[in-house]
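Database export, one record per block. Field names are fixed; values are copied verbatim from the stored entry.
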Amino acid sequence: MALIAAVFCFVLVNSKKVEADYSTVTKKWYGIRGKWFFFLLTLGVIITYLSLSPFPIPDQKKGYQENEYQVVKVDSYQWYWTMTPNTVEAGKPVTFLVTSGDVNHGFGIYDENLELLGQTQAMPGYTNKLIHTFDKPGKYKILCLEYCGVAHHAMITELTVK
């Protein structure tokens, strides 16, 4: 019995020393944790800047001279598009003025490989502007990107680029 009491006292005395060691370790690592946070924050800002600096979308607020760009007016309805004109020139910026006559639609421009080149929202009572320059001639598909009703999947039209 005395042996058990001695072991119990030994563990009790030594366990206090462990707490003292633990607090020093905790204090040391809490200091590192703050530096680690600022390192990750700085790394995140740098990676965000480097990944967005070659931003692939042209400046949507850039002003063009009247003969430097083309304007296409786009209206959307359940479940069709109207575009005026529906033919544009390659190599010259195109400003799409996109609106909706009924519900929200998603205006998406796809190339022949069905890769998305640009998109914006078509909303009732509001005109969104999308500027895109087509690099090569061809037929480009315009698809709705937002579910707008039963025939949403059939809301497709073409834009000809010469």
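Remark 1: Strands lie at 70-77, 80-84, 87-88, 94-100, 105-110, 116-122, 128-132, 138-144, 156-161.
Remark 2: The helical segments are 2-52.
End of record.
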